[in-house]
C-alpha cells in the first residue's frame, strides 16, 4: 500500500512538472460565464453571511419540486427542524421555567408559513432566486418559506453541524425570538 502511495505521488509530481514545461506561452485561466442564477446565489451567500463549501447544496435549496426532481424538499424539512431547535434553545436559555405551551407558541410564531418564515424569505428576495416551473408562483408563502428553511438544511449539510445553521438563522432572522432583522 505504501509503494502505491509513493508511486502515485511521484507520477503526480512528474505530470505537474511536465505540464509546467510543456509550452512557453502563458495561459490565462479559463473563466466560466456566470449565469443570473449563479450571480443570485453569490449575492444570497453575502446576504446570509455564509459561503458554501459545496455550492450545489445552495443550488438544491433554491430549487422547487416543480422545477426538478432534485429539489429542496428534504433540505426544507431539515431546516425546519433546525429552526425549531434553535428557537427552543434560545427561548429556554432566557426562561428555563417556560411552559411547554409557551415554548410551542414561540416555535409556531417563527415557523408560520404565512408570517415570519415568508417575511424572512421575501426580505432576502428568495422569490427572485428560487427556480420554479413556469406554472408555479415563486412568491407564494409556501414556496419562499420552503426555500428559506432549505437554506439552513443546506448549511447544516455543508458544515455537518446543525448549530452552524442555527447561528446563521439567528443572524438572518434577528436575535430575538419573534423578531426579524433588517438586511
Write structural notes for this entry.
With 183 residues, this protein is an all-alpha fold. The longest helix is centred in the middle third of the chain and has 22 residues, at 73-94. The radius of gyration is 22 Å and the shape is globular. 66% of the residues lie in helices and 0% in strands. Mean pLDDT is 82; it is low at 4-26 and 178-183. It contains 9 helices and no strands. It has helices spanning 2-21, 36-48, 55-61, 73-94, 100-111, 113-124, 126-129, 141-159, 162-173.
Features:
single chain; about 180 residues; mainly alpha; 9 helices; about 0% strand; disordered C terminus; double-stranded RNA binding; RNA-binding; signal
Helix content: 55-70%
Oligomer: single chain
- The Rg value, from CA coordinates, equals 22 Å
Structural class: mainly alpha
Low-confidence stretches: 4-26, 178-183
- Amino- and carboxy-terminal Cα gap: 54 Å
Envelope shape: globular
Helix count from the secondary structure assignment:
9
Sheet bearing the most strands, described? none
Q: Give the SSE order as H and E letters.
A: HHHHHHHHH
User: Average pLDDT across residues?
Assistant: 82
Amino acid at each position: 500500500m505504501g509503494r502505491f502511495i509513493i508511486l502515485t505521488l511521484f507520477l503526480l509530481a512528474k505530470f505537474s512538472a511536465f505540464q509546467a514545461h510543456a509550452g512557453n506561452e502563458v495561459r490565462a485561466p479559463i473563466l466560466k460565464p456566470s449565469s443570473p442564477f449563479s450571480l443570485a446565489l453569490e449575492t444570497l451567500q453575502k446576504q446570509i453571511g455564509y459561503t458554501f463549501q459545496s455550492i450545489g447544496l445552495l443550488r438544491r435549496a433554491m430549487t422547487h419540486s416543480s422545477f426538478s426532481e432534485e429539489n429542496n424538499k428534504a433540505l426544507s424539512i431539515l431546516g425546519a427542524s433546525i429552526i425549531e431547535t434553535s428557537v427552543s434553545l434560545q427561548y429556554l436559555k432566557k426562561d428555563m421555567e417556560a411552559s411547554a405551551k409557551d415554548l410551542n407558541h414561540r416555535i409556531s410564531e417563527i415557523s408560520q408559513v404565512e408570517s415570519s418564515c415568508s417575511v424572512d424569505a421575501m426580505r432576502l428576495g428568495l422569490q427572485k432566486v428560487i427556480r420554479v416551473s413556469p406554472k408555479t408562483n415563486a412568491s407564494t408563502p409556501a414556496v419562499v418559506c420552503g426555500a428559506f428553511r432549505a437554506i439552513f438544511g443546506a448549511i447544516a449539510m455543508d458544515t455537518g453541524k446543525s448549530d452552524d445553521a442555527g447561528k446563521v438563522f439567528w443572524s438572518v432572522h434577528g436575535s430575538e425570538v419573534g423578531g426579524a432583522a433588517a438586511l
